[in-house]
Amino acid sequence: MNVFRLSGDVSHLLAILILLMKIWKTRSCAGISGKSQILFALVYTTRYLDLFTSFISPYNTAMKVFFIASSYATIYLIYLKFKATYDRNHDTFRMEFLVLPVLVLAFVVNHDFTPLEILWTFSIYLESVAILPQLFMVSKTGQAETITSHYLFALGMYRALYIVNWVYRYYFEGFYDLIAIIAGVVQTVLYCDFFYLYVTKVLKGKQLTLPA
Amino acid sequence: ADADVAHDEL
């Protein structure tokens, strides 16, 4: 565990808390893509099946349990508790366009052809593109609430910090995982356009709006 | 090395 990895995890935790707080405090999930949240729940569920097979540390276990539980809690808030506020007309990205190609890729490019390893690989690939329905929704409506942009920024920073962590681990531990690195870079690149808008608009006190 | 990757990250 190095400082970049820890900061990445904290950023990830913060993103989830920001999202849950936003929905809970405003009693509304307007502007939030339920589809991205379903994909994230699928990501955590398929990746953390190793909770049953290997123990790494209390920290590791606690974080995994939190990520799984919070992702289902978010889905509950969007699709049940506050479903009247869910903006389904703007959440039109087709999940199967992401899930199916990623599933095929996980079967073809993996470290080991075993059920758990293929599911882990699937979750890594899926995570890299799971935010697309949310970004698609923002681009469709042309705007995002400031709190939603804070959520997206924290979520993007999480994988960006993981990249720094991988560089660190490569140099100091000789460790690298090409599947995680390539997927992580793809994931981070998807946020670049958003990062630019966040820095030039949201940090200057303006709402995030896209040029028409 | 890339072989035998242990998934110790989240």
In short:
Chain A: This is ER lumen protein-retaining receptor. The complex is a heterodimer of chains A (212) and B (10). By secondary structure, chain A is mainly α.
Search tags:
heterodimer, A: 212 residues, two-stranded antiparallel sheet, B: 10 residues, little secondary structure
* Overall pLDDT confidence of chain B: 71
- Count of β-strands of chain B: 0
Structural class of the secondary structure composition of chain A?
mainly alpha
What profile does the largest beta sheet of chain A have? Answer: 2 strands, antiparallel
Q: How does the major sheet of chain B shape up?
A: none
Q: In which range does the helix fraction of chain A lie?
A: over 70%
* Parts with pLDDT < 50 across at least 5 consecutive residues of chain A: none
- pLDDT < 50 stretches of chain B: none
What fraction of the residues of chain A are assigned to beta strands by DSSP?
Answer: under 5%
Family (chain A): Belongs to the ERD2 family.
Main location (chain A): endoplasmic reticulum
Membrane topology (chain A): Multi-pass membrane protein
Subcellular location (chain A): Endoplasmic reticulum membrane
What does this structure look like?
The complex is a heterodimer of chains A (212) and B (10). Chain A is mainly alpha-helical and 212 residues long. In chain A, 71% of the residues lie in helices and 2% in strands. Chain A contains 8 helices and 2 strands. In chain A, strands 1-2 form a two-stranded antiparallel sheet. In chain A, helix 1 (3-26) runs parallel beside helix 3 (58-81) and helix 4 (96-108) packs across helix 5 (115-129). Chain A starts with a helix and ends with a strand. Chain B has no helices and no strands. The interface between A and B is medium-sized, with 21 and 8 residues. Chain A: It comes from Priapulus caudatus (Priapulid worm). Chain A: Its main location: endoplasmic reticulum. Chain A: This is ER lumen protein-retaining receptor. Chain A: Belongs to the ERD2 family.
